[in-house]
Amino acid sequence: MNQPTDAQMHIKLGIPGATAISLQRRMLDARFAVRYFVGRGIDVGGGGDSLALYREFFPLIRDIFIYDSPQGDAQLLDNVPDNSFDFLFSSHCLEHMRDAYEALGNWIRVVRPGGTLIISVPDEDLYEQGVWPSTFNFDHKISFTLCKRNSWSPVSVNILDLLGKFADVAQPLSVITVDNAYRHHAPRYDQTQTPLSECAIEFILRKL
User: Fold this and answer.
1) What CATH number is associated with residue 138?
2) pTM exceeding 0.85
């Protein structure tokens, strides 16, 4: 697996990605710096918006491996050994996978017991806003809801059902809807193309 070098990584000007947008929120919550982003991590789907760009804000990170298309299939992580990392971070990648259950199972597999997974996905009502297939990202294969009886999306995954599938191997520490700076009454548009808005569900797991 080829890891991008520091010379290949650079801050993008203009509208940042979801990791950059979430940075201020994470910096205000000390748990990210002292409990979650600690040790050796893997950023699944990090690409050019990786947590590795902002390591100085989380000083207990030892190193971060960026796992994106050049490194392999994020659905399987079949070239990553079991129990390899202290934490796994993934920002808006799971919705691009073929099967959320298979992907999450493999993501849990590569984290050591006691390690942490920090995963964000788009909330289907905040991001897709009732339209499927997605008109804002044509590569989205899955939509997500935190918990509701019925969804308008034919490919909706209920996060609480997803986490329940892995209750014997991973304990949820936090499951939240993130709508910082979201304009709930604005006309329909992709609010993640602004510098502030988050349209996400974030869940944090501790591997048992």
Assistant:
1) 3.40.50.150
2) yes
